[in-house]
Amino acid sequence: MSKLTDVPKRILIGRALRSDKLGETLLPKRIALPVFASDPLSSVAYAPGEVLLVLSIAGVSAYHFSPWIAVAVVVLMFTVVASYRQNVRAYPSGGGDYEVANTNLGPKAGLTVASALLVDYVLTVAVSISSGVENLGSAIPFVVEHKTLCAVGAIVLLTLMNLRGVKESGKLFAIPTYLFVAGVFAMLVWGVFRSVVLGDTMHAPTSDYEIKPEHQGLAGFALVFLLLRAFSSGCAALTGVEAISNGVPAFRKPKSKNAATTLAAMGLLAVTMFCGIIGLAMVTDVKMAENPAKDLIHNGSPVGEGFVQDPVISQVAAAVFGDGTFFFVLLAAATALVLFLAANTAYNGFPLLGSILAQDRYLPRQLHTRGDRLAFSNGIVLLAGAAILLVWIYGADSTRLIQLYIVGVFVSFTLSQTGMVRHWNRHLRTEQDPARRRHMIRSRAINTFGAFFTGLVLVVVLATKFTHGAWVALLGMVIFFGTMTAIRRHYDRVAEEIAAPDEPSGDDTIRPSRVHSIVLVSKLHRPTLRALAYAKLVRSDQLEALSISVDAAETKALREDWERRGIDIPLKILDSPYREVTRPVIDYVKALRKDRPRDVISVYIPEYVVGHWYEHLLHNQSALRLKGRLLFTPGVMVTSVPYQLESSEAAKLRARRRAEWTAPGSVRRGPVERRHKEPHHHKS
Amino acid sequence: MSKLTDVPKRILIGRALRSDKLGETLLPKRIALPVFASDPLSSVAYAPGEVLLVLSIAGVSAYHFSPWIAVAVVVLMFTVVASYRQNVRAYPSGGGDYEVANTNLGPKAGLTVASALLVDYVLTVAVSISSGVENLGSAIPFVVEHKTLCAVGAIVLLTLMNLRGVKESGKLFAIPTYLFVAGVFAMLVWGVFRSVVLGDTMHAPTSDYEIKPEHQGLAGFALVFLLLRAFSSGCAALTGVEAISNGVPAFRKPKSKNAATTLAAMGLLAVTMFCGIIGLAMVTDVKMAENPAKDLIHNGSPVGEGFVQDPVISQVAAAVFGDGTFFFVLLAAATALVLFLAANTAYNGFPLLGSILAQDRYLPRQLHTRGDRLAFSNGIVLLAGAAILLVWIYGADSTRLIQLYIVGVFVSFTLSQTGMVRHWNRHLRTEQDPARRRHMIRSRAINTFGAFFTGLVLVVVLATKFTHGAWVALLGMVIFFGTMTAIRRHYDRVAEEIAAPDEPSGDDTIRPSRVHSIVLVSKLHRPTLRALAYAKLVRSDQLEALSISVDAAETKALREDWERRGIDIPLKILDSPYREVTRPVIDYVKALRKDRPRDVISVYIPEYVVGHWYEHLLHNQSALRLKGRLLFTPGVMVTSVPYQLESSEAAKLRARRRAEWTAPGSVRRGPVERRHKEPHHHKS
Q1: Same domain assignment for residues B544 and B633
Q2: Who among B530, B628, B630 is closest to A507 (CB)?
């Protein structure tokens, strides 16, 4: 795996980057496409199958509706792509759906989109990995026999890779994605060639199977409902389309234009592959049943529990290339790989969205820091845990997981497009230039249609899939929404509590007048001497040393040493029969404050700085505890005077290494650019 | 469970105790006996059986040697008791074997004893619980059928009780222990009465079983070796005798005399019960086999795997009282209860010994603080974990666990007695008073005999039991010894590194001359204003505020607010394109130090103090990280200026409650008294 820095003619941004940040270079379109499109393109591996599967409920005759459903999906895809081309032009900062909804529809809409996206990231991992395992399983039976285990294993592996901080690279994405696209197109071309030119009749492995319809002879409303459900399932092909709108800053200039072009290319590829696979599935007589064990009939009897229903893409490949041939295995491998890459995108998107939410105080502040390893790790582990849970519960069955998937996507599509309509309305109020106005009116029309269409699909998805699992996704969204609202409320309450009063009086309590400094002393060693020296340097009104006597002999030795060295700071000794350190100090500080409420007590604590975690266990524990307690005492400040032991060098190096770590996902995030909260001034 | 404070006429020690420490009152002998003797007395529940078990290897005929072995155990018991009566007189401070060995034989011997005792505590839990489960099992078959599970459950229960901090109370100990002693004596008296006066022939459940000897007709060296092995097993009756020597401070005055009397009473009770049970076992024809499944013959065939060999005490009780009678069940329950209490003593002894070892820097310093809950908990969990491991590995089989048990006890007996001989030698060198000299010479004679005899037993135990499991105990000792040596070495190395130079020059680095104070500012809220006010109060040579700009708009707002309020401290703003906080600050501080190496940089960090753990996650994370990094930077001190939010009240209360927690085991530890490292001045 080579880094993107190897890509020639890389353009470095603004100020010189340190070597450890060099990975963040700009993406040419040919690399940007695979980086952002592995998720939406990979969904053609499962979306066509889902359509056939739902239609099979009404029997094989209903398969005739599949071209119409494909057309509907294509129209929707073009609508969504056209809409998002407006988004990337209007919001080149890469805020994505969350930013669009937040800015134009208000915080509640923004938070709803954010919750939907977070749920979606979890489902992207669960669905992509499950589907990847199923595709790999069509070539390697072992994998599909231990489906759940393999899926969980793959998630764990991805998680470990991301935790270790594998650098994302454009090439890493490009090769499998282009391999997958090339493979699918080769299959389509070869299939059409065999069928039309050579006149071969190709047979999918399930071509001589029959399907027992669950509901024979559906008509009227029931049939429409079934078709809508099939269409909803087909919409799985649209997941991940919005990814590019988050990644505009990673594109080369002109960023927005390049992003829009890439979006169009991606849409075109996706619909071609989607329609092609459905078409070949029809030609090769693929049969998919919702409950294959009892509804798939072979030689007059159901196939039973042991039967494994391979994905449509692999059945078509078996028909076109021949089962087990080199090209068949290659396509299966490429499909699995691109699906794993799609899952990996969630690992990059989840923390990125987290950092944006943290900036708006919906998540802990520390997530805001870019490349904060700890925050990143927490996000990754949360994502992986949720995905593993889902995979486990649903037995890594992509069909059942997809029922949950599409809700979140369309919630964010709809809200984002509605937000865009508002965006154009607002700009039209002030824009005078007729050419620009025309442009805006056109964009508004596109987004309005997009909002309407995706909203309609959302209603259809909710109506047809709620009981099939969509409620789980909604529940997840409600949980995220509730948690983030609570966090925001906490921050707001604290902000209110600590807001400075407006008159420039300064402090809220009694104005402090004097500083009484106390240096905690246990022995007269270098750390103590340093603390004493430093404390003397800052001229406080009163300075004394304080020692807690837990052992008479040690205390006596300390007192003698003190006098022998002629230290000109008074030494106060407090008795502690229970060998406690914390309580006597706290009591003493409180007594001082009671006597002179306007005194500020400044406590100096000499601390050893050590290098290894096990050394931490051996030092500073009582100092840490004391510090913890002192911080609860009003009118006190606590100063750590560190003394670096030799072993601390090791820890220093480690800390530096940690600081220089870069979070995965930096390729798609592009170079750093200040994100503006109100990007109204951007012109499309 | 009532506290010991209910015992009338309690004597409060020295200074008035706070209410939360009132539990620590002094023990009258009648309470001290059960508190300290539950461990040694309970061992008569398993020791007699072990003797018979080993003898059975040579066939039932070898049972005739059992009275001789009992005599040897009695002689040993008297020797040990007599020896420890010298210990408690010479060391009324309660340091126990570790202190005696450490003071008189040097740190290596002391550490050996400490390692042996730590291993012993683990084994006390494992053996007592296993034996308790076996005794309970003689009345309740379910328990013995799920032996390991029940034993682990009992350990977990004890652990949870101790972690929660159940207050030890004298009565809690007194009732089961006296019940047990009374029950055993009732059994002995009633058994002798039935046999001698009524002339009944009593039959143990196994009286009509036969034993197939593993080695028929042993003679010569082999027989002697077997007898020695049986004797070694019988020595299990002596475990726990040393406990009183740790607990002298808990006794009423005259402490040493009362402790010595209690020791004698305990010894007398133990040997009577031990001999009585062996005697009745002979009378009632109890049969014990090492491998009952194949060596115990009933009606001509081995009893097989399903057979459960009940402990001798319960077989005798069945013979004397009748199986399943009220008295039988009562005695079984009392036996189990007293064994669980014996296990509980380890939970008290382990952290106590830990705190003494911590004082000598063999364990982390924080263990030294009495009643330190965290340290206590860690000790408890370590003890429980090790005991559960042993119980699991050995299937809660007390017979197999006892093989490991006795080594540690006799290591500490032998080293302690040897230490006492040295102690008297040293005192005899300076003592002039003839009466005292006579007394000392007598004491020395007793300890010399004790050292010799226990040393001999140690050799016997090692020789006869090494391959049977004693090596595991030795390995445990080596691990403890190694770990503690390493910790001590670390502390010594650090102590050397930080030792102050002898000339009163003061500091080791360039003598600091000025203080440059930096207040970190993110926003102008109350915490910041407080930090600014405090920083101004301590008059440093230079004072500035520093803000890291991660968002242009926020920075602008801060600058405006700063000017509007007319704050007379210069505000410096550093850019951070990666939204990092730590690195720019560190770099800035380093640059300052480079320019003026004699400057000390004082960094003030405003911190929120919040009340709940989840609030911690939301605040101060970057401050904490920054602080961590700053401590590695030389010439820096870091001051936390806390701002207590309203929610911090909750945490304050919680912290106070934690501080007022008293560790279990305080009854046996007695009131606080300064422990002197060199107690040579104590006269016996």
Answers
A1: yes
A2: B530
Clarify whether residues A200 and A344 are in a common domain: yes
**What gap in Å lies between CA A684 and CA A437, rounded to an integer?**
11
- CB contact under 8 Å between B365 and A618, yes or no, is yes
Q: In this complex, do B607 and A631 lie within 8 Å of one another by their Cβ atoms? A: yes
Predicted ipTM > 0.85: no
Among A370, A610, A634, the residue with its CB nearest the CB of B578 is A370
Do B541 and B578 sit in the same domain of this protein? yes
Do A230 and A112 lie in one domain? The reply is yes
Residues A484, A532 share a domain: no
Is B20 domain-assigned?
A: no
Report whether pLDDT(A25) > 80: no
CA B598 from chain center: how many Å? 50
- Give, in degrees to the nearest 5, the angle at Cα A290 between A286 and A295: 80
CB A463 within 8 A of CB A228: yes
Is the bond preceding residue B512 a cis peptide, omega within 30 degrees? no
- Distance from C-alpha of A270 to C-alpha of A636, rounded to nearest angstrom: 64
- A189-213 pLDDT, tens per residue? 999 999 888 888 888 888 888 888 8
pLDDT digit string, tens, across residues A78-117: 999 999 998 888 888 776 888 889 989 999 999 999 999 9
Share of chain A above pLDDT 70, in %: 87
Answer yes or no: do B646 and A540 touch at CB < 8 A.
no
From chain B, pick out residues whose CB is under 8 angstroms from the CB of A648.
632
Give the list of residues 6+ apart from residue A61 with CB closer than 8 angstroms, or none: none
Looking at the structure of chain A, the number of domains it has is: 2
Which member of B497, B550, B645 has the closest CB to residue A494? B645
User: CA-CA distance, A380 to A346, in Å (whole number)?
Assistant: 9
Distance CA A333, CA A348 (A): 23
Degrees to nearest 5, angle at CA B20 with B16 and B22: 55
Under the banding of pLDDT at 50, 70 and 90, the label for residue A303 is confident
DSSP state of A499: B
Question: Is residue A375 pLDDT above 80, yes or no?
Answer: no
Residues of chain B neighbouring A619 (CB-CB closer than 8 A): 365, 494
CATH no. for residue A559?
3.40.50
Structure tokens at A544: 């004394």
Q: Are residues A540 and A394 in the same domain?
A: no
Phi, psi of A577 (to 5 degrees): -60, -25
A148 CB burial (10 A radius; 0-12, 13-18, 19+): middle
- β-pairing verdict for A296-298 and A210-211: antiparallel
Tokens of B179: 């019940």
Q: In whole angstroms, what is the distance from residue B446 CA to residue A2 CA? A: 80
Q: What is the DSSP code string of A84-106? A: HHHHHHH-TT--HHHHHHHHHH-
Residues A327 and A450 occupy one common structural domain? yes
Which chain A residue is nearest to residue B564, measuring alpha carbons?
A504
Give this prediction's pTM. Answer: 0.72
The stretches of B366-397 forming alpha helices (DSSP H) are 373-393
Domain of residue A549 covers 514-666
Name which of A359, A645, A674 is nearest B494 (Cβ-Cβ). Answer: A645
What number of other Cβ atoms are within 10 A of residue A513's Cβ?
12
Which residue has tokens 């939406």? A40
Please list the rounded mean pLDDT of every run of 10 residues in chain B (684 residues): 33 31 64 84 90 87 89 92 89 82 91 93 93 88 86 91 67 85 93 87 86 76 88 88 80 86 92 93 89 83 83 92 89 92 85 83 76 69 92 89 88 92 92 90 93 91 86 93 93 86 55 89 89 88 90 88 90 82 88 90 89 73 82 89 82 68 58 43 38
Pairwise CB contact (< 8 Å): B366 & A490? no
Q: Does B678 map to a domain?
A: no
Contact A369 B639 (CB under 8 A): no
